[in-house]
Amino acid sequence: MFDLDIMAWGCAMVEAPKLLNLRVKHALNRVRAASMPFAWSLNPYRGCGHGCAFCYARGTHEYLGYSADDAFRSRIHVKQDLPALLEAELAARLERAGGDLERMSAALGTVAIGTATDPYQSAEASMQITRQCLEVLARYRVRFSITTRSPLVLRDLDLLQTARLTGVHVSLHTLDAGIWRAFEPATPPPAVRLRAIRRLAQAGVPVSAFIAPVLPYLTDGAEAIAAVMRAARDHGAMDVMVSPLRLAPEVKPWFFSVLKQAYPALVPRYEALYNGRAYPPRWYADRLYAVEDAARRRAGLPSRLHAPGNPSVPLRDDGPMGGEALSSSPGPRCVQLTLPI
After folding, report:
1. Could you say which of 148, 165, 182 is where a domain stops?
2. Residue 157 shares a structural domain with residue 181
3. Does residue 155 sit in the same domain as residue 191?
4. Which one is predicted more confidently, 176 or 329?
5. Cα(102)–Cα(107) distance, rounded to whole angstroms?
6. Residue 268 domain-assigned (yes or no)
7. Containing structural domain, residue 292
8. Are 216 and 157 part of one and the same domain?
9. Distance separating alpha carbons of residues 173 and 8, to the nearest angstrom
10. Which of 165, 193, 219 is the last residue of a domain?
11. pTM of the model
12. Are 21 and 56 part of one and the same domain?
C-alpha cells in the first residue's frame, strides 16, 4: 500500500495552486521527432505545482493567456475529461484494428506521460487524472513511460507492476540542498526521490534517473554528476541520463530572476552562454557529454560514447566547468529529454 507519509517531503511553504478545469479535444499528442523513443505524449495537466524555475514548459501557459511566470505554478489547468477522451480514442483505434489488442498496441507505439508537466504533481493526489489514464492504458495493453519528480507515483504500484510500463524516469538534477531549494523549492527533496527510486526498484518496476537539466557552473562538474549517478544506482536505478539546460526566450526572464536572487555572480556567465539561443553552444554540449562519460566511469556505469573515432575530450573534471573549450574534437549529440507541447 502507498504510504501517504512519504508525501510530507518538507518542501518550501508556497501558496497552494488554484485548480481550473481545461476542456481538450484530444488525449494523445503526436510526437514526430525522429530522435524520440516514443510516438505519443500524454499530459493530464497544464501548469505544474512544482514550479521549477528552469522548466521549459512555462512558455506553454502563454497559450492560456498567462505570462511565463509563477502563474505556471499557481494556476493549474486540469484535464478532467482526459480519461474519457483517451478511452474513446483507444476504442476507435481498436475498432480499426479489427478488435485485435496486440495489433492496435503495436501500431500505436509507446505513450510518454509527463513530457510537459509532472503527472504526479500535488493536484494528482486528489484529482487522480493520471491514475485513471493509466487504468485505460492498462486495459488496452498500451505501452507507456512516466517521467516525474514525485513519490506519489508509488501510489500506483499496482498498475505499474501489471501494465505495459517501459519505465519510470525520476528527475533528479542535484543532491545539493541549496541548489534544490533555489530552483525547485516546491518539489520533493532529493532524498525523497531517491527513496522512491528504491521502492520502485524493489517492486520490480524498471526505473531510471534523469539528471535534467544540468545547470551550467552549478551542477555540471564530473563529481557532482557522478554523485547523483552513484546515489541513483545505489537506490536501484537501472540507468542515469543527462540533459543540458534549455532556456526558451519566454522562460529566460523568470529563470534569470531566480538566478539573480540565488547566484547573482553567475548571471553574466549565463547571459553569455545563452545569448540569442535556447541551448548552450556546441562546445559546451561537447564538454558536458564528455563530463557525463567521466562521471559514468566514476559511478560504475557503462560509457555512452560509442561513436568510432570519437576520442575522450580533455577536461578539468574536479568542479563545475569553466567557460572555455578545452578541445575541438566532436562530442556526442545532445539527447533531448523534454518536448514542447
Report:
1. 165
2. no
3. no
4. 176
5. 9
6. yes
7. 172-323
8. no
9. 21
10. 165
11. 0.85
12. yes
CB 290 within 8 A of CB 315: yes
**Residues 111 and 185 placed together within one structural domain of the fold:** no
* pLDDT tens digits along 276-315: 999 999 999 999 999 999 999 988 898 876 433 333 333 3
- 3-state SS class at 146: strand
Q: How many domains does the chain have?
A: 2
16, burial (CB in 10 Å: exposed 0-12, middle 13-18, buried 19+): exposed
Q: Which tens digit of pLDDT belongs to each residue from 213-260?
A: 999 999 999 999 999 999 999 999 999 999 999 998 888 999 999 999
Q: Does residue 25 contact residue 81 with C-beta atoms inside 8 Å?
A: no
Amino acid identity for residue 55 in this structure:
C
- DSSP, residue by residue, 65-126: T--SSTHHHHEEEE-TTHHHHHHHHHHHHHHHTTT-HHHHHHHH-PEEE-SSS-TTSTTHHH
Q: Is residue 340 a part of any domain in this protein?
A: no
User: Are both 67 and 135 inside the same structural domain?
Assistant: yes
Q: Does 331 map to a domain?
A: no
DSSP symbols for 158-179? HHHTTS-EEEEEEE-----HHH
Instruction: Read off the C-alpha cell for 169.
Output: 524516469
Contact 48, 118 (CB under 8 A): yes
pLDDT at 83: 97
Sheet holding 165-171, edge to edge: 29-30, 40-42, 111-113, 144-148, 165-171, 207-214, 240-244
Q: Considering only 63-77, 230-244, 250-264, 314-328, which range has the smallest mean pLDDT?
A: 314-328
Burial of 13 (0-12, 13-18, 19+ CB in 10 A): exposed
- Who's near 330: CB < 8 A, 6+ residues apart? 286, 310
Neighbours of 236 (CB within 10 A): 18
- Residues 26 and 112 grouped into a single domain: yes
> In angstroms, rounded to a whole number, what is the distance separating the alpha carbons of residues 181 and 12?
8
